[in-house]
Every structure is written in C-alpha cells, then in structure tokens.
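Technical note accompanying the year-one report. For the benefit of new consortium partners, we illustrate the data format agreed upon in the data management plan: each record pairs a sequence with a structure-token string. No post-processing was applied to the example shown here.
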Amino acid sequence: MSPEHYNKLERMYLQANINTELYDTTKVKISEEIAQIELKISEQYFHALGAIHGSVYFKLLDDAAFFAVNSIVTDVFVLTTSFNINLVRPVNKGIITAIGKVKFKSRGLFVAESILYNEDGKEIAFGTGNFAKSKIELSEKIGYQ
C-alpha cells in the first residue's frame, strides 16, 4: 500500500464534520492494516456520572477498526456492517487512544478489532467489527484528496 493512500484517508477522516465540529482534538495515523486514533477528553463528552459516554468509546473503536480495513481497500469506501464493544473502565481525563487492526480479510468481508487505552496505557474498552466494500468510490467528492 502507499503512504499517499494513508494520507488521503487521514485527511478525509479529519475533515469530516463530526471531527471538525464535535471531536476537534482528534488525531489519526493510518498504515497498512492498522489505524490509531487519539482524542483529548473534554467534559462535553461526559454522561451524568462525570465520565465519557459510551458513544465516544464506540466512535473511536469503530473508526480505528474501520480505517484499519480501509487502509487495504484502495478503490472504495468500506462500511461497518456490525460492531460490538465491551466497556472495561470509565475515563474522565487525559488522552485516549484507539488502535484498530485487521484480523481477517476476504473478497467481500473484513473483520477488524480495536482496543481503546487511557493515557496510562490501561485498556478501557475493546471491540470487533465486520466491514464490507461499498459502491462509493474513494474520490475528492468524499474528501479523499
């Protein structure tokens, strides 16, 4: 795979409205079959008990697994078809990092897993997802530039 492909995926990810408007401290690094996504925790992500909401865990885990898969699919956007998460511990400060890795690949199905760590390197959540190729071409039209 080419570093240019990874760079285009990184730019596409960071330019998405959800990341520019809501998750604006996000950082991403993509390489072959691996993606790493970091987020600085903010109180805007907290639920009533003062820790980040499960939706934030889900987003980072899914995004890391997704981009690990799309790192090896160079022609089209992939889609998450299912994703299961397990929350291990709460977190309310610092930087959290999701690392996604491809575990299985075939012509029409990809399986990837991701683990979310707090800034002390402790696992706070993990997930596994299934992904499939879409019919949406990777192009400037969707921010792949």
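Partners are asked to follow this layout when depositing records. The chain has a mean pLDDT of 97.
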